[in-house]
Amino acid sequence: xxxxxxxSGDPKRSMExxxxxxxxxxxxxxxxxxxxRIVRAAIEVADAEGLAGLSMRRVADELGVTAMSLYTYVPxxxxxxxxxxxxxxxxxxRPAGSEEKDGSEDNDGSRSNGGGRAGLERLARENWARYxxxxxxxxxxxxxxxxxxxxxxxxxxxxxxxxxxxxxxIEMDLVVSLLxxxxxxAVRSVIEAARVEQRTGMTSEQWWETYAPLxxxxxxxxxxxxxxxVGEVSGEEYGAPSDPARSFEFGLxxxxxxxxxxxxxxxxxxxRRSR
Length: 275
Fold this sequence. Notes:
This protein is mainly α.
């Protein structure tokens, strides 16, 4: 799988593109393109073809222009990916009617996540849905984070879900990171399963139907008794080697249980100071 690294472009140009810092418009014909159009086209290409299919030339083809014409707006693929990552984090779909329950609208039009377990579960599901809409996000290593306005706004919303619950600022940050890391790991299985089907033409169920009879010929249940017992039950239940979506649901609740336990522990500790 192709891996790209955020923050690998020109820092000054990336920040200018992320925050919309542009030179004053010059006199002359109106530009045919814009950074927004280029980024949207790039996201469409990456959604359909992954980052392996993304290039300045491919984006130019999508827009019906020459590759050289893009460099007036975006200096390279590295800066383009930074803006793509930030842009998709502006997408926060919410269930119908959630506005009445999720908190008041902020001045910039965004809404808070609400607090406690419900807010944390909501942000986990939003992250899950975003990865499924844009699987290429898993191919962008963000150890050097993208410092864009949409990601900053998202981080602020995420922290709101654990604000005022008795956690220190560091614990708030670690809880949000824990949930993000859990979703990142869990969603990989779902996306990889979909890719396997696309690449091989075989579903998990078809794979299991093919390999299960062959495994029975060589597998000794007396040698692996626990695996035999659990494998028989889970294989019959899933009809496949695993059920990634079910694993996500199960794991999410256990992670939330652990966070709730931490919050209860901190609430019982007198006079905790931020550290």
